[in-house]
Amino acid sequence: MLDELIEKRKKALSESEQHKNRRNELNAAASTHARERNKLNGQTREFVEEAQKNKELRDQYNNEVQALKEKRNELNAKANEYFEEIESFKKDHSAFQKSSSIKEIQRQIESMEFRQQTEVFSTDKERELIDKIKHMKAAIKEQEDELEQNKELKTKLQTARDLRKEASDIHDTVTNIAELAQKHHDLMVEFYRKADQSREAADAEHKSFVEAQEAADEEHQAFITCQKELRDYDKVISGLRNKKKKTKVTKEQREVRQEAERIFQLFKGGEKLTTDDILLLQRSKLL
């Protein structure tokens, strides 16, 4: 029975070591997943911050674009008022009645310029559109040169031109700022995309962390159970060994007593005793 218990204890000890080693491995894995999760969460925060910065810049530029567009439209509206006065003059003078409306031509130019900025053309189509705008501007210039022969019209034309020039300059600024707004919008979208990716990766690492931690806890509980079994085995084995030891001592004492009684009978019979025989009798308290 003792040998059987010793074998069972060895098995329990081996299992205990296995659970302890596995627990330590899982705890190490959990720590690795936690560090990677924290790193990814840090990256996510950085990406979101960058996205927010670009969003603020985009909104700032869009607000500037809106304000500049309003200013540009006001200037074009004032210029149109002068051009309408010029058109009224042309209707009252037969020499100009066959000429196209400068206002209408300008409206067409603005429409084509807007298409050029917002639509995608092939190289040939874009060149064709640019040439058409160029010819239409030349037609306006030709009419204006003719109208400038009239002193009053010349002043109105110059004022209208100045307004158009200022509106055109603002339009160029609007285009540049709109491009900046689009640039920061694209950056915002990209940083939010990166934030989503790193957040998903962090969630995956957190899931792995939880799984490893739970598995480590299970291994630790199994280790504790094995340790309890070992303590129980140690108590039983120790008790059996002590009992065996006492039994052995009792048997030896009995054998010594029997030997001492045999020698004592020889002594009583007049046999000569050796020193060892006498010591044995004394130890057995027969002398």
From TrEMBL:
Which portions of the chain have biased composition (kind: Basic and acidic residues)?
Answer: 12-25
Name the domain of life.
Archaea
Which keywords are on file for this protein?
A: Coiled coil
Q: Note the coiled coil stretches, chain numbering.
A: 126-170
**Where are the residues of the annotated region Disordered?**
1-43
> Entry's InterPro entries?
DUF7121
Task: Tell whether Coiled coil is among the UniProt keywords.
Answer: yes
- What is the recorded name of this protein? Putative phosphoserine phosphatase
The protein's organism comes out as Methanofollis liminatans DSM 4140
